[in-house]
Each structure stands twice: as C-alpha cells, then as structure tokens.
Design brief:
Blueprint: H1 3-7, E1 19-20, E2 31-35, E3 37-41, E4 48-51, E5 56-59, E6 61-62, H2 63-66, E7 80-82, E8 84-90, E9 96-100, E10 103-106, E11 118-119, E12 127-132, E13 137-140, H3 147-152, E14 159-164, E15 172-181, E16 184-189, E17 194-199, E18 218-220, E19 223-228, E20 232-236, E21 246-249, H4 260-263, E22 278-283, E23 286-292, E24 299-305, E25 312-319, E26 334-338, E27 345-352, E28 361-368, E29 374-380, E30 387-391, E31 408-409
Parallel strand pairs: 2-5, 3-6
Antiparallel strand pairs: 1-4, 2-30, 3-8, 4-5, 7-10, 8-9, 9-12, 10-11, 12-13, 13-31, 14-15, 15-16, 16-17, 18-19, 19-20, 20-21, 22-23, 23-24, 24-25, 26-27, 27-28, 28-29
C-alpha cells in the first residue's frame, strides 16, 4: 500500500506552513522534515516543534525529565556539561529513534594554556528513546546493556522498525531497534525488553569485499535497509530469530571498486558518514536509490527497487545544471530525499557562501522532476543540514508506543 493511500492525503495539503509546539491528532502535518541534530531542551521548552515542509521540524529531549546523568558537576570546577544527540532513524509509521550522550568537557583555562577543552572519559553511556512526535510521548530504552552486547555496539547507524498486530496496517504492537556489525546483529525488541546480539545468515556478495554501512538506516517492507555507497544495499528482518541478510547491488554503472572505500572521502574504513551524493529513501510506498554526480552536468538519477526486491529500475534522470536558479548551489549540492508522498518531488540541500570567519548557512531546495526548474527553496540556519523525513499516519495521534513495560513519559 502506498504512503499516499495510507495517509489519505490530498496533494494540496502539503503546501501550507503550520507551526506547533506539540501537535495534536487533529492538527499534525502529514509528514515532516526532522532535523537530525538534536539537543536537550531546558525545562519549559516544548520538546517537539512540527512544521509543514519545507520548514524543518525539531525534536528535543527534556533535560531534567528524561536524561540520566552522572550528576551535576561542581559549578566551581569549570566543567562544561553537554548533551548532544541525534534523531537516528524513523520507522515507516512516524515513530523516531533518539539518542543522547552526556559529555563533560574539562577546560584548560586560557590564561594558563591555549589547548582546547578535553573530554572527560568518565561519562554516562548514551540515553536512547523511541518518540511519538505527534503526541510527545517518549519511551526510554534500557540503559543496562550486557557487556558482550556493548562490545559489539557502535550505535551510530541503528534503525527502527515497527510491526503491526496480525500483520495488518495500523498502530504497531511492537518495535525493534537494530544495527549490523559484521556477522551479527545488535538489537533491542520491545517484546523482550532486552539488548542482545544474534547471528545473521550471511548472503553472497558479488564482489569479495567488506561492506561499510555508514549511512542512515531505512525501514521498508518489514525490513531494515543499510547502504554501502560503493556497492549496494543490504537488508534484514530484526524480528527474526536468525535474521537473513539480502543484498541488492547498486545499478551497474553506480558500482565502485573496493579500492574506492579507501580513497573516497564518502566511504573510508569504519565509515565517515559524509556521503552526500548517494542515498536510500522511501516514497509513495517504494524504496528508492538516488545519486548525484558532483560535476558537470550534475546528473541526478533516481532508481526504484523492483517488485521482486532484487534490482533497480531507472525512473528519472535530470541534468541539474540546466535548472533555472540552480547554478550557484551546484558546487555544494547534497542529496536529500524524495517527498514521502509524491515521488516526483525531490529535496536537496546546499551550503550558502558566507563572509570569512562567519559560519555559513544552508538552503533546502525542492525540485519537481516533471518540470525544468526549482519550485521552492527554504533557508536553514545551520551550516551542514542533515534530515530525517517522517510520515505521520492519521492514527499516530491516538497511538501509544508499544513500550512493553519500559519507562514512558507523556510530554504534553
């Protein structure tokens, strides 16, 4: 079933700009562009700020209500107390996976030394939550993780997948948080309330190479999908007793050599996470692979996964250098995603030049692939935008997170 049918939307509904601190079932947008970077919110600040695209929405964690810390540092110590976080992933039905770290920076006073502040090694592991951005409900995942699981856990590229009761569309009755690490999967299941590692059934890769999965994880057709930008996508069902890996190679002319993983700034060993020209996304009920050639004629290609889930079909190819008003953005252009409800509309981002010593800003560009020009742009106030598109089904506003006994708080 397509996302458009699932949400029962009208095409005109996505054009309005609405802002709200905590959305209600009657007023929430059909989908939102969630800023990936997140911060802990001071008391009294709304933890969810939802807007209609192309404005960017924010999800924050109330600092003193939810975050577990190792205690407040002595004010006289000069220690800087920070809670950086991120929106790691979105499920296919609007729930979000959030992660926050407590970081203590021990400053070296400038009058004695010019060295930067140093991170305190004695910090509390990250706080992870599943969030319903429409209701503001947040459910904490257990922070007691077995040692062997923590040894395998990276935590930077986790995905979130939900499962509806009896296999039907509708509110979920369970969720899984998972990441792949070699021949095993680190996962948390809401039904067991435990972190664990499970072996995965390997799949045969067409090229003898180790996959580097350093992109955001996408939920599609009951599976989580990871992308190696040099060779292909791999997927697995995290609810399975022994998850079976499936590999789909990139389109023929998109596959790079294994050596590209070493020399390419987008795919170094251990993953640098800076691939800005190749992405997976879900739109109109299909999985899409997008790529942008970073030189003239700045060709943008869009491929859809076939019905068998074994290959890609080219659906659209554009030369962005011919688009009116696009020329000044081309050198810093980054691939974003397709509109989750209209696959002909793509979202890109670009950095905006700034005077020397002034932090740059960015702009979100919206292009209708059925036309020959950019149709909309919207400024961002941060230099390196990274977004998570998330759809909001009509029942999300009245749905509880299937927390299975986990600590859950309503932030309304």
């Amino acid at each position: 079933m397509s996302l458009r049918r699932l949400l029962g939307l009208s095409a005109a509904a996505t054009g309005r700009l609405r802002g709200r601190s905590l959305a209600t079932a009657a007023t929430h947008p059909l989908w939102a562009i969630i800023r990936r970077n997140s911060l802990a919110a001071p008391d009294g600040m709304a933890p969810v700020l939802l807007y209609d695209p192309p404005r960017v929405s924010d999800v924050l964690a109330p600092m003193h209500h939810l975050l577990k810390t190792s205690g407040t540092p002595d004010p006289e110590s000069g220690v800087i107390h920070l809670f950086p976080g991120s929106v790691c992933a979105a499920s296919g039905d609007g729930l979000l996976l959030l992660s926050y770290f407590e970081v203590r920076m021990s400053p070296i006073l400038a009058k004695y030394d010019k060295k930067p502040a140093m991170a305190d090694p004695d910090y509390v592991p990250d706080n992870r939550f599943v969030c319903n951005p429409v209701t503001g409900e947040m459910s904490r995942l257990p922070d007691v993780v077995p040692h062997h699981v923590r040894e395998a856990m990276c935590g930077t590229h986790m995905g979130l997948l939900t499962r509806a009761g009896r296999g039907h569309d509708g509110p979920p009755d369970g969720f899984a948080v998972a990441e792949l690490q070699g021949n095993q999967m680190v996962r948390f299941l809401s039904g067991t309330q435990e972190w664990e590692t499970v072996p995965v059934s390997p799949c045969q890769l067409p090229h003898a190479r180790q996959m580097i999965l350093d992109r955001e994880v996408v939920a599609f057709r009951g599976r989580l999908w990871w992308l190696d930008v040099t060779c292909g996508a791999i997927s697995a069902d995290p609810f399975s007793d022994r998850p079976e890996l499936r590999f789909v190679e990139l389109p023929k002319n998109s596959v790079l050599s294994a050596a590209a993983q070493d020399r390419c700034g987008c795919a170094r060993p251990h993953g640098c996470g800076r691939s800005t020209h190749r992405r997976l996304c879900v739109s109109d009920g299909r999985l899409w692979y997008m790529e942008l050639s970073p030189e003239e004629p700045f060709r943008f290609s869009v491929f859809a996964l076939d019905d068998e889930g074994t290959g890609w079909t080219l659906e659209n190819r554009l030369h962005l250098s011919s688009y009116q008003g696009m020329a000044r953005h081309l050198p810093s252009l980054q691939v974003g995603f397709l509109d989750p409800l209209k696959a002909n509309r793509m979202y890109l981002s670009a950095r905006v030049a700034a005077p020397k010593d002034v932090k740059g800003t960015s702009v979100i560009l919206v292009v209708d692939m059925n036309r020959d020009h950019q149709i909309l742009s919207y400024p961002c106030i941060w230099a390196d935008p990274s977004f998570v598109p998330s759809v909001f089904p009509p029942w999300l506003g009245s749905t509880r997170i299937p927390s299975a006994g986990l600590v859950a708080l309503d932030l309304l």
